[in-house]
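Supplementary Methods, section 5.1.

A reviewer requested that the exact input to the structure prediction be made available. We therefore reproduce it here, unchanged from the version used in the analyses.
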Amino acid sequence: MKATIERSTLLRCLSHVQSVVERRNTIPILSNVLIEASAGGAVKVMATDLDLQVVEALGAVSVDQPGAITVSAHLLFDIARKLPEGSQVSLDAAENRMIVKAGRSRFTLPTLPRDDFPMIAEGELPTSFEIPAATLAEMIDRTRFAISTEETRYYLNGIFLHVADDELKAAATDGHRLARFTIKRPDGSEGMPDVIVPRKCVAELRKLLEEALDTNVLVDLSASKIRFTLGGQNGVVLTSKLIDGTFPDYTRVIPTGNDKLMKVDPRTFFEGVDRVATIATEKTRAVKMALEQDRVTLSVTSPDNGTAAEEVPAQYSSEGFEIGFNANYLKDILGQIEGDSVELHLADAGAPTLIRQDEKSPALYVLMPMRV
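The structure derived from this sequence is encoded token-by-token as follows.
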């Protein structure tokens, strides 16, 4: 194989694919990217960790000799990063070596044969629909902070995508908080299986979406695999295995009868919680909210660091009571609200609280209280 590629093109492509490759690998070939050059001047670069696979097509300046080879992903990325801007990179593979040349630089890297490179067998992906990249990015941003990192409850380690009531819903929960984002059901997604998209796939997809926000993403899926195609023919294809498990029926924890409504400016509220939480320690992450007529008093008491309190103006006309929340969880949710008002629907000190911008908002959050 022999091909010449613009440094900026190669660098952008490698930055996408190398982040899938784990830094430590017991299987040497998984540290490599597969580079495949065809006679027409097209080059494909591929990386995998056996659960997630990313393939990107790019145009080469020239392909003198078609072929395919695998070479260390992180090494090639680091080399491309350090080469001078505007240079052309020549990749020449023969006899278990790849020679990388650009300007006056020359590197000789070890290679492994392409036949050893594992591919994810996609099988049939019967459900297929398109979704605007900006919508998909928002769906991820509004929910992924609530994904659980607890390995024992592996079925919570991702975003749950499912179709219900003529809507496509994305939900994530770690048992303490729930985030859900809803959009109108895209054409082609009816009858789709309920799927859990793993955390790593979500993170890689979100990075790729950043460069394609004004395009559409093609989503193909079955009950065990999902594939995202960004940027059409010369784009990036991300394929991932799905989490094999059952996501709990989260609708049961969304409260419907919470009769106490508090409206507050999310920025002011966030900053107030952030300030009083300064003295909270690992043991006392709880912030106490005392609700009274048209105001809420936030307070934290720490046996080591003393106490803090702050009063925040709010619209509230129900009876006064006190409730505690994990300060970080509350801040995570408030950080998602973009308007100048947020609604907290409360019941009592022991019941989950529903948080949303308003009833028309596509995003909805539920937060479990803490004892304070």
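DSSP finds six helices and 26 strands in the chain. These observations are discussed further in the main text.
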